[in-house]
Design brief:
The complex is a heterodimer of chains A (267) and B (67). Chain A is of the alpha/beta class and 267 residues long. Chain A contains nine helices and ten strands. In chain A, the strands form three sheets. Chain A has a five-stranded parallel beta sheet with strand order 5-4-3-10-9. The model of chain A has no long low-confidence stretch (mean pLDDT 94). Helix content of chain B is 10%, strand content 45%. Chain B has one helix spanning 19-25, and strands at 2-6, 9-13, 17-18, 34-37, 40-42, 51-52, 57-65. The termini of chain B are far apart. The relative contact order of chain B is 0.30. Classes of the chains: A alpha/beta (267), B mainly beta (67). The interface between A and B is medium-sized, with 38 and 27 residues.
C-alpha cells in the first residue's frame, strides 16, 4: 500500500514521532525509539554543564543524526524571541538542519500554547528559512493562520503536555484537519495505545508523543504498542469505518437457514 | 581582567580571548555545541575569529533528550 507521509517535501514511512526526554538513560532512549519505528525524534536545546566530564555520552551518540531526523524543539520557551533564538542555536548545532518544532508556552502550569507568540515566532522562522512544525491549540482558525504563515505541519494538543489524558476534544481535532491542507499531527496528550489509534482514526496524519512511552512501566514495550496503534488507526481511517447505528442492532450471521426452533416443553 | 557571563554564571579571564579559546577553557573543545554571544549566533567557523569582551553574555548549548 502506497501511503506516503510527507513533511516539507520529504517522505517518511512511520507516522509516529517520538520525544527523547524522560528516559532512564540513552540506552533505553535508543531501544524505545527503535521499537517505535519512529524516524523523526524530537530533542531539546539546553545549556551545557560547564566543566562536565568530557567523555560523558551525548544524545547525538545514542541517536546518530545520520540515522534519525532530528526535530529540535523550543520546549520551555515563553516568548517568540526565546523560541527563535533557541532554534537558531539548534540550526547551528545541527549543521544547518532546518526542520524544527516550534512551541511557545503560555504558562508553566498548563504548558498550553501562547498562540499570539507562536504566530509571531512562526512568521520570523519561516522568513529565515526554517521548516516549522508547530505545536498549537486545537483551534481551526489559528491552525489556518499558521498554515498561511508558511508552517509545514500543524500539531494541535489533544490534551495537556504530559497529562496522558487522551483525545479530549475529537471534534476540534477534526475541525483542524478540515481547516488546513498541511499534515496534522496530534502533539501532546496521548496516554496509551488506544489514544494514538483514535487520533489516527480521526484522520490525523501522525502522532507525536514522549511521556506516554517514557513514563510507561516498560517504555520499550509501550513504544512497540504505539507503533501498532498508529498503524492500526491509520489503516482503519483509510479503510473507512462502518456507519454507526444508534437505534438498532443488525445480526452479523445469516438470518436464513436457521434450524427449527425447539418446541417449548410447557406447551 | 575581563568578566563574561557564560550560561548565566560569571567567568573571569586574565585577558581578552576569542570564543574558541573560551570554549577550550570551559573544557568543551571538540564537543558538539552551539554558541550565542549577546543574542547572536557565533557560527562554528567564526569561533576563533570572534573576540569576547568584558560584559559579554554567552550561551553554549547542546542537544538533550526532550519532547
Amino acid at each position: 500500500m502506497n501511503d506516503e507521509f510527507i513533511i516539507a517535501g520529504k517522505s517518511y514511512r512511520s507516522r509516529l514521532l517520538i520525544g527523547t526526554g524522560k528516559y532512564k538513560d540513552f540506552a533505553q532512549t535508543r531501544a524505545a525509539v527503535e521499537a517505535s519505528g519512529a524516524e523523526i525524534v524530537t530533542v531539546a536545546i539546553r545549556r551545557t554543564n560547564i566543566g562536565q566530564n568530557a567523555n560523558e555520552p551525548s544524545l547525538l551518540d545514542a541517536l546518530p543524526p545520520s540515522k534519525f531526523t532530528y526535530l529540535p524543539n523550543t520546549a520551555g520557551c515563553y516568548s517568540a524571541e526565546d523560541a527563535v533564538r533557541t532554534l537558531r542555536l539548534a540550526r547551528e548545532l545541527l549543521d544547518g538542519h532546518d526542520l524544527v518544532k516550534l512551541e511557545v508556552l503560555g504558562d508553566p502550569h498548563t504548558l498550553y500554547p501562547n498562540m499570539p507568540e507562536t504566530l509571531k515566532a512562526a512568521g520570523v522562522l519561516v522568513k529565515e528559512g526554517f521548516k516549522v512544525m508547530v505545536y498549537c491549540s486545537d483551534d481551526p482558525i489559528q491552525a489556518k493562520m499558521l498554515e498561511d504563515a508558511g508552517c509545514v505541519a500543524i500539531m494541535p494538543l489533544a490534551s495537556l503536555i504530559g497529562s496522558g489524558m487522551g483525545i479530549l476534544n475529537p471534534w476540534n481535532v477534526q475541525l483542524v484537519i478540515g481547516a488546513v491542507t498541511l499534515p496534522v499531527i496530534v502533539d501532546a496528550g496521548v496516554g496509551t495505545a488506544s489514544d494514538a489509534a483514535i487520533a489516527m482514526e480521526l484522520g490525523c496524519d501522525g502522532v507525536l508523543m514522549n511521556t506516554a512511552v517514557a513514563a510507561a512501566k516498560d517504555p520499550v514495550l509501550m513504544a512497540r504498542a504505539m507503533k501498532k496503534a498508529v498503524e492500526a488507526g491509520r489503516e482503519a481511517w483509510l479503510a473507512g469505518r462502518m456507519p454507526k447505528r444508534h437505534y438498532s442492532a443488525a445480526p452479523s450471521s445469516p438470518t436464513e437457514g436457521r434450524i427449527a426452533p425447539s418446541r417449548s416443553k410447557a406447551a | 581582567m575581563i568578566q563574561v557571563i557564560v550560561n548565566g554564571a560569571p567567568q573571569r579571564f586574565e585577558q581578552s580571548l576569542d570564543v574558541a579559546a573560551l570554549v577550550a577553557r570551559m573544557q568543551l573543545a571538540g564537543k558538539r555545541i552551539a554558541v550565542e554571544k549577546n543574542g547572536e549566533i557565533v557560527p562554528r567557523s567564526a569561533l576563533g575569529a570572534t573576540m569576547v569582551a568584558d560584559g559579554d553574555r554567552l550561551e553554549i548549548v547542546v542537544a538533550v533528550g526532550g519532547g
